[in-house]
Amino acid sequence: MNEWFYRGDFAPTPTDLPILLLGLLLAYLCGQVLAWVYMVTHSGLSYSRSFVNSLVVMPVLVDLVMQVLSNNLITAFGLLAVFAIVRFRNILRDTLDTTYVLSAIVLGMANGTQRFTVAIVGCALVTLVFFFLWYSAFGSRHRYDLIVNLHWARPLTELAALGRLLDRHSLKTHCASQRSNEGYEGVDLSYRILLRDTNRVEDLLRELGELHGVSRVTSLKAEDESEL
């Protein structure tokens, strides 16, 4: 029975069982590393447990695919025909998820072609890159802390009073929009504010409400906006 198992592969190139098991094990471990990195660093709204599981399984499946191909062109074309029958349609909402999928595929290919050193070094490097991007918040832009919308009923020449109040609470203030309506006097203003102290938002809103000529004050924190 054991002899049949070890010699049961009648392909042109016989399978080296220890190498096959080593490749599958490393592919599984690489998938586990990617999955754990994804769980720790994920910060979007499209988290899916099934996607995390797929990151573990995908390198193993790709490893098996590469083992089956084994530099055989005919087998490769046959495999393409099989995959043409089954269509995989899954819309990834986060572009970083696509990067994880590609990483899982590449690591599976490296293990399947018995490039174990490349797989180990590549997995370690990709993991470090993902952790660096997550820890450093690379790509995010912290330009302001608060969005303040208000109605200014006084003449525009007296906006300096509003500016002085905002300057007391902010390091930087930017008037993003100014709209006037024919139905009522005054203008609607929208400010982007980088606060001196993020714990004093209520003080700022209270002083704005008490300032003569200011009404309909609303605010929105910067983190409440979606960053795409």
Largest sheet: 4 strands, antiparallel
Question: Residue-averaged pLDDT, rounded?
Answer: 77
Structural class label:
alpha+beta
Helix content: 40-55%
3D structure, described in words:
This protein has 228 residues and is α+β, with helices and mostly antiparallel strands. It folds into two domains: 2-135, no CATH class; 146-224, LOR/SDH bifunctional enzyme, conserved domain (Alpha-Beta Plaits, 2-Layer Sandwich), CATH 3.30.70.2690. It is 54% helix and 15% strand. Strand 2 and strand 3 (187-195) form a beta hairpin.
Output the keywords:
228 residues, alpha+beta, Alpha-Beta Plaits, 2 domains, disordered C terminus
Helices and strands in order:
Layout: H1 2-6, H2 17-41, H3 49-69, H4 73-85, H5 95-112, H6 116-135, E1 146-152, H7 159-169, E2 170-180, E3 187-195, H8 201-210, E4 214-221
Antiparallel strand pairs: 1-3, 1-4, 2-3
Explain briefly what this protein structure is.
This protein has 228 residues and is of the alpha+beta class. Helix content is 54%, strand content 15%.
